[in-house]
Amino acid sequence: MKLLKNMVNYKINSITTEDLLKYASQVNIQIAKPQAEKIANYLHGKNLDIFDDRTRSQVIKEVAKVAGPETARELNKLFIQFTS
Questions:
Q1: Of 43, 47, 70, 77, which is least surrounded by CB within 10 A?
Q2: pLDDT under 70: residue ranges of the chain
Q3: pLDDT the model gives residue 6
């Protein structure tokens, strides 16, 4: 399980705009390209553990600041899909 968590976290920490849009469309989550760019720029290079509830909550709060609360809610849905 640790390997799977590491792989998911690595992908989140190195996600591109295109990857984010692709994953969101696969699970029917609406994220516009400008918001996806802001989110990808925010996440890129960070060492985040989205399996940790506190960390995920903090990331969602920061995303809400840069991309808006609705986009943050949609991203949280995507993170839940990744961690379930």
A1: 47
A2: none
A3: 92
